[in-house]
Amino acid sequence: MGGGLLKPLPRAFFDRPSHEVAPELLGRVLAHGPVAVRLTEVEAYGGPGEDPAAHTYRGRTPRNAVMFGPPGHLYVYFTYGMHYCANLVCLPEEHGSAVLLRAGEIVSGPDLARARRSATGKPVADRDLARGPARLAVALGLHREHNGLDAIQDRGGSALTVFEGTPPGHALIRSGPRTGISTAKETPWRFWIDGDPTVSPYKAHTPRRRSSAATSVGEAPSS
């Protein structure tokens, strides 16, 4: 990476409502170690009592505590018993808001990203390396232990950093309903770069059959 890609975003960038931060994250570059992804699709999720689809809707819990911390930190959660998803926290402490990172283009460390994504032995096309939130987390090597990492490079270097990158022109930014959720599903807080091949396809929510052993109530929100 070079030029503007090497300039990290300041914490103030994230100290705003998530639906304002989200479209401006498009084209930015998130680097974790040697692998970096240019973000092409994101979703915003609001705060407690505001957004029924957000993890913070019912307030603070041990699981979502990072979302109530300082802006610019990484919130990683485990969903459906098999996937990790990554979010960037917005707004000041105690507000509980974030942006889900849905898809992107690998711009650094493609061999390592491919090795992580090809663990099953199946070949992975370039556009699919980080196409979807779970795939993006795998490509970047993000797991539960990375929950709470600070993505702001104000300490002389960071394992996780968001760089300025090259944002698309406003005419290329599209917005629409968030994907795969059953509540507040018409809220147009999914943002993507029009025509980019790494953007994931939109999927409406499909109710899942729950086993009799299930102990939780309701769906697993997307952020």
Please tell me about this protein's structure:
Strands 1, 2, 3, 4, 5, 6, 7 and 8 form an 8-stranded antiparallel β-sheet that branches. The longest helix is centred in the N-terminal third of the chain and has 8 residues, at 18-25. It is built from 3 helices and 8 strands; from the N terminus they run αβββββααβββ. Residues 210-222 have low confidence and may be disordered. It has a single domain (3-193), classed as 3-methyladenine DNA Glycosylase, Chain A (Roll). The chain is α+β, with helices and mostly antiparallel strands.
Strand runs, count: 8
What is the helical fraction, as a range of percent? 10-25%
Give the name of the CATH superfamily: Methylpurine-DNA glycosylase (MPG)
CATH architecture: Roll
CATH class: Alpha Beta
Question: Which spans of ≥5 residues are poorly predicted at pLDDT below 50?
Answer: 210-222
Taken in chain order, the helices and strands follow as HEEEEEHHEEE
CATH topology description: 3-methyladenine DNA Glycosylase, Chain A
Tell the overall outline: globular
What share of the residues does DSSP label as strand, in percent?
Answer: 15-25%
Mean pLDDT: 88
Distance N to C terminus = 29 Å
Task: Give me the number of helical elements.
Answer: 3
The helix/strand class is: alpha+beta
- Taken together, the total number of domains comes to 1
How large is the radius of gyration?
Answer: 16 Å
> What profile does the largest beta sheet have?
8 strands, antiparallel
